[in-house]
Amino acid sequence: xxxxxxxxxxxxxxxxxxxxSSRPAIPRLRLIAIVLLTxxxxxxxxxxxxxxxxxxxxxxxxxxxxxxxxxxxxDxxEPAPTDTPMxxxxDxxxxxxxxxDxxExxxEPAPTAAPMEESESAEGPGMGQVFVIVAEESEARFSIDEELLGxxxxxxxxxxxxxGEIKVDAANPAASVIGPIQIEAGTFVxxxxxRNGAIRRFILQSNRxxxxxxxxxxxxxxxxxxxxxxxxxxxxxxxxTVREVTNPVLFxxxxxxxxxxxxxxxxxxxxxxxxxxxxxxxxxxxxxxGEEFIVEFDFVARTQ
Length: 304
Description:
Elements: H1 14-17, H2 26-46, H3 52-57, H4 61-64, E1 129-133, E2 139-148, E3 151-159, E4 162-163, E5 165-168, E6 177-178, E7 181-184, H5 193-203, E8 211-220, E9 231-242, E10 245-259, E11 262-272, E12 286-287, E13 292-302
Antiparallel strand pairs: 1-5, 1-13, 2-3, 2-12, 2-13, 4-7, 5-6, 7-8, 8-9, 9-10, 10-11, 11-13
């Protein structure tokens, strides 16, 4: 380099360069330099405190510096979203519990019924078994004596409009129950239509009292047991209601056990006309009507 070739002796001093007559005064130059330095320092360190007019007149050092461009926030490129794939669910099967070899509990056998004692008679109807009267094969009737046109006559009225049941206790037949048994009062038929009308309207008054009813209260003379094929005769005491008049009556009953599901029998009793306040209408052709009359039942009863 050429600057390296110069030596200290080759460089002229200020005294040599400026002639004595043209050299400025040293103190004046120092004063000017101090003022400039002070101005520069004030502009660089605290120009905001000076009046605005001073700031315009004295250019700050910052004005001479090359401005650094501030980044525009809108120009900042946003990072492009990455298409990082989401982990797909795995189809790893959940292991099912293995069946245990514990054997299932076997159901306990149902207790067997105790064998029936001979006294309960397996051949007869079951204990407390109910037999229902079959109306089409049964009949209720009454019979009473009178004189018709001076001639003795027995008047018979019949009906099969019967309903009721018989509860048989084969182990203790005396505990069996007959009834309630009902008869439709307006259904009795005799051999004369005029008599039929008189019985319905005047004697039984069936338009007001529809049913004749019987219910047993006691069975006596029953055997110790009953079996299929037996025929037994016993007495049944009970209450008989006619036209809201109730009296105790006793029927003589004959019963045959046809099978475990069928009974056949008959029953009969004698009633007094006055006991039931029955009034026989006065008819010129009828005389000497009996004070008593017979009531009978022939019945068939079967289990349902």
